[in-house]
Amino acid sequence: DGTGSDRVFFSFIKEIISLTEIGYEKLIIRDVVKEAFYKMNSIREEYRFSCAGFGMKKSLALFWIKTQLILLAPITPHISEHLWQELRKIGFFENESKFVIDAEFP
What we know:
mainly alpha, 106 residues
């Protein structure tokens, strides 16, 4: 289900999750920031560009947001929590944990 762009985007997110986890395990925060912030934003822009004619898939965009907040929460707890709570107020992540720090690592 979904376009080729959707599948590639999802695949890149999964790869970034793995690389971020390795960075956390080795305590190499530079790698965590590189993967969870810079590469996540880069792949989102590539996906957005590839979907220019028909738009990004909402469920995939929300998965990207949720994943990035969870990946960055250990090193940016205040902003991650603030964004998590704001998104919960407008109806996103209703079935997720109340706090981002308690969310299951993707």
